[in-house]
């Protein structure tokens, strides 16, 4: 198979790194060669964050660029808009409908754009928009947005056993919150 | 057994397997996790520590090597500037136990103040440098570096870049090789670098470089992969991966695992087998210059760039002329820059400094974010420690004109790193400068490492803590004040008072980082929408938990940690606990 590329994008503090570790783990268990690339440091402080997951028989570059992603999982609407150019023709974007205002919007220097999801649809791009924040709260913690979205992804991504996802969630999240996260995963999968 | 590991984690695994027993580092993105992962191995097998700075860390590694132990230190590219002094002379003394320095460059400046290419240091210090291209190589090259170090009697630099350090790929692990400590023997000719000894050692170093060039030609660390005779590519590290991704079997490759010293015959032979030869290297034209110097015709920086990262598309575009296509939305997308966190103890200080309109000499850490709007408080950021010495120079340069209206701001960890000597300069050479240590009891930006001022070592065990107040007094700063930066009125009063004094002063703004797990937060504050006049006074502090609205401000209760700074700014009593 050709190498596949998935991007996870969001806002620093939303748990994108943990999501990329879950995904890296299930793909590795499925027998693929996997590379996961993340950026630490400055970008953690509420900035726009992105991680790349590439998998296949042989993977060279750990990085995904514009026009190269088969799939994007966005944790926030504005970030979906920001990274949409990274999607390959025919690719799919999953986005959380949550909005988090960046500092220029907070200070009034810029406006949060309206109708992002419709604009993406109008371009003929496959988009799955879900309210992952409500699902996470229902599961018991607003911090479980990342695992809800992995649940949504698990339905779209073929070839991976449910059991493998569940094991990866258990392995990657802190022991105290395994139950909340398993529930969050299930709610995401049902969406 | 194989598992996914970050490049940095794989380096740590390599150290462990190589039988390394002393590790000393100062944190710096993207190198930090090497030492964090190393500290997870048993302390009695591989002792780890956070040193106050990279020079100290490197000297600890030098000392451990002289003692016969395999030793290690890690740093980011700018850290090697600080550690350059011991490195250049350790190149002359050579090693007893193997010694490796990992240096992580940051092309693209994800988290750095410049984009320097550390390969220049390997050339200048005349030491070998290895460059892995994925996590497995991170582990393998770390181990190989110790063999080279001991075989050629030299420190070895392991060069990483952000994408190698912070990418995960599969690594297979092996057992640790325990290295028995050799007997320590005094050896003045080898280890005392006075001119008479160093003159002799320089001859040895030059011969060593020739020996290492032979090693580079034949050892197998530099590999040739012949595919097409049309296109040849020379690359190392992550650029090799970008080139393979972009060109696949359409090109032949000379992959350099050792980037200093470089082979000559191997490159000449490869060049003779391909029609067009490209050098794909991020940052400076080091391989390219080496080729040209040796009469090998290559294409390089006239097609590529000296700035930033390359990625596969750049290689594909330059060499094959192919471009990817993509869709964009016809809408303006506001930027989302990193910001000081909700509840950050630095915010209050920057708010007051902006209000007072003072010149702020800044430093390296989370608080560099105080330069971002709406606080926009910082005037300068250069390097670790430069806030204090830079302020002294600024005040001398302005002949005292700014002494009552300028301050330096520096974090506790950065102050330990290289602020102390700068403060000595202020006391000794007398400028009426005001220095603010933003003491949040942690090394914040790199992800919460303990430091010599917070009373814990790398293992989280209790350790001696530098008493900043006593230290300031001891070096001749008589006016020392501690203030809680969560109290805006008191912070303003103290800063004004110290600025007015005709003597140097130190203000310690002490409040722990809001992200520390040990910090207990109040519940989120709320806004009384009847009382809120939407005057936006509270918005001046640039808190990400405050959200502008048409009628009134709201508080994002998933972010607010109840620090109460906004409450102190509200004239209408609209913000409540």
Description of the molecule:
By secondary structure, chain A is α/β, with parallel strands linked by helices. Chain A is built from 8 helices and 6 strands, in the order βαβββαβααβαααα. Chain B has 577 residues and is an alpha/beta fold. In chain B, α1 packs across α2 and α10 crosses α13 (311-320). The mean pLDDT of chain B is 96. At the A-B interface, α1, β2, α2, β5 and α3 of A face β8, α10, α13 and β20 of B.
Q: Tally of extended strands of chain B?
A: 22
Coarse shape of chain B: globular
Indicate the low-confidence ranges of chain A by residue numbers.
none
Structural class by sheet pairing and helices of chain A: alpha/beta
Features:
heterodimer; A: 191 residues; alpha/beta; six-stranded mixed sheet; 6 strands; 40% helix; globular; B: 577 residues; seven-stranded mixed sheet; five-stranded parallel sheet; 19 helices; 22 strands
List strands and helices in order, with pairings:
The complex is a heterodimer of chains A (191) and B (577).
Chain A: E1 4-11, H1 16-29, E2 33-38, E3 48-56, E4 69-74, H2 77-83, E5 87-96, H3 103-106, H4 116-122, E6 126-130, H5 132-139, H6 145-156, H7 162-172, H8 178-190
Helix pairs in contact in A: 1-6, 1-7, 5-6, 5-8, 6-8
Chain B: E1 2-6, H1 7-17, E2 22-25, H2 32-38, E3 47-50, H3 54-66, E4 71-76, H4 77-93, E5 99-105, H5 119-125, E6 129-130, H6 135-152, E7 156-161, H7 162-165, E8 167-172, H8 188-191, H9 195-218, E9 222-225, E10 231-236, H10 237-247, E11 252-256, E12 258-260, H11 265-273, E13 276-280, H12 286-293, H13 311-320, H14 346-356, E14 359-361, H15 386-397, E15 406-411, H16 412-429, E16 434-439, H17 468-474, E17 479-483, H18 488-500, E18 505-510, E19 526-527, E20 546-547, E21 554-555, H19 565-569, E22 575-576
Parallel strand pairs in B: 2-3, 2-4, 4-5, 5-7, 6-7, 10-11, 10-13, 14-15, 15-16, 16-18, 17-18
Antiparallel strand pairs in B: 1-8, 6-12, 9-11, 19-22, 20-21
